[in-house]
Amino acid sequence: MPLTPTTDGTEHESGVRSYSRSWPVVFDRAVGSTLYAEDGTEYLDFFAGAGTLNYGHNNPTLKKALLEYLSGDHIVHSLDMLTTARREFLRTFAEQILEPRGLDHKVMFPGPGGANAVEAALKLARKVTGREAVVSFTNAFHGMTLGALSVTGNSMKRGGAGIPLVHATPMPYDDYFDGDIPDFVYFERMLEDAGSGLNEPAAVIVETLQGEGGMNTARIEWLRGLAELCKRHDILLVVDDIQMGCGRTGGFFSFEEAGIVPDIITLSKSISGYGLPLALTLVRPELDVFEPGEHNGTFRGFAPAFVTATEAIRTYWSDDALQRSTTEKGALVEGALNALVAKHPDAGLVAKGRGLARGLQFENAEQAGQVCREAFRRGLIMETSGPLDEVAKFLPPLTITEDELKRGLTLFGEAVDTVLS
């Protein structure tokens, strides 16, 4: 049968699409923290490409570097051949990000997306240790490919795999039992008990703040305890910083405040700075044991993304101005969310998050979605997260102005008041 034409072109697209269902308008342009529909309607963006646009849409400094690179007929696609763009990124990343933080990790380009970075991390951990099992955490999200799904908690997403997801064991994330059980008592008992049935893990993979899982924030002492447990039991520690890295929680890496040094780190989303596909798997030098070509991919290092990534680091990470700004704006959001909690004492609201990764959890999960829809009607883009979509989630660009942030918080507050009234 012939397709019925629509105004948005969705008659040609698979039903798997999701975000376009939440925001049913056709977007045309975007600048900074604002999206523009094709009819000119403005929307303030508290989504930022699910954390991919930490420096805003079409950041002018990054755009200038990108256009100059493209206009000079420089290399765009090169697999992992040596290029000037690649060299400049590696040098800049090492000198301005890794070395000041005392990290000597090697940089691996696994493929264009975050799931690629996770897959590389899991494969490498198994190769290094000779073990198969990986420990993940309740409500974790690490990607949609089979290996990444095996360490992801969401049952709906796992159900799409179509086959058993094996060689991974979930453990309770920080405060999963509301403080009733001491940290790691279950995990460590399983490790030490010969009758527990837990295979000796190659690695533990963790998010310091679970964005998709419901804005669950691990305490510093919990992260330190996890790092110490891994060290005692000779387990590699993998920190997935794909959504919470690149300054989202304050420091460039979300684990900096805890003072831990992961064995493997995954980055993607905002590492290119401009929304271009790029992913990194960072590995301690002694773990860099893949043979040449043992893990590769057609788009393992996209040159235009190197250019914008390099410019983003030079522009925003040569000092601590962005980090301080993110911390201050995060405190502003926290205050606004706490005010809503106090204003609606019977609604079971909980303010969550760190830096500019924030959320408001609703006791009635349906209300979170209602609030986000109400916010959209007022010109504010945001999504839900959590196993029941019970959290209204804030991921604005880090470069959002204070006035824009306050305006968005006002719109959100109005949406909450409308739904809860």
Automatic annotation (TrEMBL):
PANTHER family: DIAMINOBUTYRATE--2-OXOGLUTARATE AMINOTRANSFERASE, DIAMINOBUTYRATE--2-OXOGLUTARATE TRANSAMINASE
Catalytic EC class: transferase
EC number(s) on file: 2.6.1.76
The keyword tRNA processing is assigned to this record: no
The protein's required cofactors: pyridoxal 5'-phosphate
CDD domains reported for this sequence: OAT_like
Segments traversing the membrane: none
Record-linked InterPro entries: Aminotrans_3 (IPR005814), Aminotrans_3_PPA_site (IPR049704), Dat (IPR004637), Ectoine_EctB (IPR012773), PyrdxlP-dep_Trfase (IPR015424), PyrdxlP-dep_Trfase_major (IPR015421), PyrdxlP-dep_Trfase_small (IPR015422)
Protein's name in the database: Diaminobutyrate--2-oxoglutarate transaminase
Listed pathway(s): Amine and polyamine biosynthesis; ectoine biosynthesis; L-ectoine from L-aspartate 4-semialdehyde: step 1/3
Keywords, comma-separated and alphabetical: Aminotransferase, Pyridoxal phosphate, Transferase
GO molecular function annotations of the record: diaminobutyrate-2-oxoglutarate transaminase activity
Residue ranges that the Swiss-Prot or TrEMBL entry lists as coiled coil: none
Family: Belongs to the class-III pyridoxal-phosphate-dependent aminotransferase family.
Stored Gene3D superfamilies: Aspartate Aminotransferase, domain 1 (3.90.1150.10), Type I PLP-dependent aspartate aminotransferase-like (Major domain) (3.40.640.10)
